[in-house]
């Protein structure tokens, strides 16, 4: 692999970590569209573009999820009782959704990804937050919610924060606890998603030689450590920069990346 690709993956990992630390937003929305474009340039067959991007992004989220989980746990911000109840549904939903994704053509996955990111961007721009007006459902209900969160997360390669945090705040969980608990939930999402994409891509022909199923190892190994290194820098900048303005800019950037991904897979 040429040095230019090494530098591209390092830069992408660093940027994703910076945005995660600065805005508290996971990297799937950034990684998947850019990885798709990079894979096109590297000659990955069209039918594998979205699957390889999703699987690689899910794997790259794992180290960052561990770091985030430990940080929130040290601050006592994780509701481990909720994590215990929601995790079975999260694992099942995420893992099973990778089998569904494997059956969807690249263009279909790109359209679903773009629609979800556009909705998330509009929510960020409107700053819509659910009002806390109910309690948590019973454990089986929490696990059922986890099934849905995991399923959607696997199809768009996110750690679930954009879904878990609103659900928990709606259920009267204070925002710091909701964010900390969501960070803990992000780990099983990332692990189950990466494992599912590895299994589904295991015997697929035409993938790059350095791919482990639908996880492209060079991208994963280069992005993950640099995203962890830059996340604390972003967290420090969050106290000095106009975060509200940056979130709006980031929302428009997500829209652009989502549309770029659709354009890429329809013209590649």
TrEMBL record:
GO cellular component, one term: plasma membrane
Keyword field contains Cell membrane: yes
Localization of this protein: Cell membrane; Membrane
Transmembrane segment boundaries: 7-36, 48-70, 82-102, 108-128, 140-158, 178-199, 211-233, 245-266
Coiled coil region boundaries: none
Keywords, in A-Z order: Cell membrane, Membrane, Transmembrane, Transmembrane helix
Cross-referenced InterPro entries: TM_pro_TauE-like
Record's bilayer topology term: Multi-pass membrane protein
Primary site of residence: membrane
Pfam families in the record: TauE
Keyword set includes Transport: no
Family of the protein in this entry: Belongs to the 4-toluene sulfonate uptake permease (TSUP) (TC 2.A.102) family.
Protein name from the UniProt record: Probable membrane transporter protein
């Amino acid at each position: 692999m040429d040095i230019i690709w090494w530098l591209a993956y390092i830069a992408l990992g660093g940027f994703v970590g910076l945005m995660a630390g600065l805005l508290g937003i996971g990297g799937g929305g950034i990684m998947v569209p850019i990885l798709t474009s990079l894979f096109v340039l590297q000659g990955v067959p069209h039918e594998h573009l979205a699957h390889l991007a999703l699987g690689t992004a899910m794997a790259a989220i794992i180290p960052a999820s561990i770091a985030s989980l430990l940080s929130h746990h040290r601050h006592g911000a994780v509701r481990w009782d909720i994590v215990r109840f929601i995790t079975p549904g999260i694992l099942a939903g995420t893992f099973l959704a990778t089998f569904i994704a494997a059956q969807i053509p690249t263009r279909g996955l790109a359209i679903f990804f773009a629609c979800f990111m556009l909705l998330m961007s509009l929510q960020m721009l409107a700053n819509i937050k659910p009002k806390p007006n109910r309690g948590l459902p019973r454990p089986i209900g929490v696990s059922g919610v986890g099934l849905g969160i995991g399923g959607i997360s696997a199809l768009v390669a996110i750690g679930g924060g954009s879904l878990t945090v609103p659900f928990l705040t709606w259920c009267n969980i204070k925002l710091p606890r909701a964010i900390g608990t969501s960070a803990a939930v992000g780990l099983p999402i990332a692990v189950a998603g990466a494992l599912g994409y590895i299994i589904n891509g295991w015997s697929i022909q035409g993938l790059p030689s350095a791919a482990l199923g639908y996880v492209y190892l060079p991208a994963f190994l280069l992005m993950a450590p640099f995203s962890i290194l830059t996340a604390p820098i972003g967290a420090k900048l969050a106290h000095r920069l106009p975060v509200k303005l940056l979130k709006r800019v980031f929302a428009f950037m997500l829209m652009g990346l989502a549309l770029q991904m659709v354009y890429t897979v329809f013209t590649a």
